[in-house]
Amino acid sequence: MQPNQSELFHSINQFTRHFSKLLNESLVPLGLYTAQWTIIYRLKTGGPSTQKELSSYLGVEAPTMTRTLARLEKSGWITRTAGKDKREKLIELTEAAIREYDNWLAAVRSSESSVLRYITEEEISTMIRLMAKMRENMVPGT
């Protein structure tokens, strides 16, 4: 075991918690939570998806995803339509969500910018590569 290994994962966990809190402070006034934003972002950038695809991509258990999708649907941000397999619904953004997307994105980008204030592009690229390597060790094929 490397000496800094535990500190690395503790730092990642703490950063994630604090960043989620910061994002919530920006998004909640706009009617959205961080967990909902991750789904909306994925649907906007990746197109319509099934619940199973979203759960797998985000590493979220099915019951949690079901609850989050139900809230998004109730808020009018997503719709579910029959997919290729009648048992599986295709989830996509509503026109209302597409209209609101730029406002949500601006709030997220503002939070990201404040966190990355003294971080260089090179450091960002290095972090992206490191996170991808670690994710590959957890979820082969990602």
TrEMBL record:
Domain HTH marR-type: 5-136
InterPro entries: ArsR-like_HTH (IPR011991), HTH_MarR-typ (IPR000835), WH-like_DNA-bd_sf (IPR036388), WH_DNA-bd_sf (IPR036390)
Keywords: DNA-binding, Transcription, Transcription regulation
Single GO MF descriptor: DNA binding
SMART domains: HTH_MARR (SM00347)
UniProt superkingdom: Bacteria
Protein name: MarR family transcriptional regulator
Source organism: Sporosarcina globispora
